[in-house]
Description:
Strand order of the largest sheet: 2-1-3-6-12-13
Mean pLDDT: 95
Radius of gyration: 17 Å
CATH class of the largest domain: Alpha Beta
Structural class: alpha/beta
Helix content: 25-40%
Number of helices: 6
Oligomer: single chain
Number of domains: 2
Amino acid sequence: MSEQLKRQAAAMALTQVQPGMRLGLGAGSTARHFVDLLGEKVAAGFACICVPTSEATARQATALNIPLSDLDALDRLDITIDGADEIDPQINLIKGGGGALLREKIVAATSDQMIVIADSSKLVETLGRFPLPVEVNRFGLGATRCAVAAICASHGCEGELRLRLTEKGDSFVTDGGHLILDAFFGRISRPEALSMDLLNIAGVVQHGLFLNMCKKAYVATPDGIRTLSSSN
């Protein structure tokens, strides 16, 4: 999918932003286009205040002189614009391919509306083709990994549970200092039940299932931008 189409999806999301809004800024390749476009508006005098979901997004926004804050100062946001790794017909999501899932979920949960921008390769009939990221505490990793593996097996995980590594072979560490286990399901038949079961494991910090959180998605396709809406 061309970067130009992703930029068009980002531009559609930008039409939902009004002066003075408090925005959550997501991570990922399509979200980066949104931050670039927002930076152009800010340079022209557009007023807003933003909370980034990752250190990388914060660096990009700072370079563009986008005003930033955090959720200690802002207890509520108007809109979060973010990407996704998978989108099902109900606009349930899998996120966390970039490792920012905990912050992304916190920011989305404090927003009145979450809008996703993505390309059509992210559309699926059932979540699970993309590995589900599970963010875990470093302490007790072995025990947590066994517990996560048991839960995933009980939900029909078709593949392995893999500790995410960097290109150098070191453990991938999130911005919050945690590790990530990637669960290869193939198909997640009961996402709500899986969500609860994973969160009941003491060492699990959060997971990449974003259920009933997204209200609208702008999806870049070869034929243009497709808009998905949810009544959630």
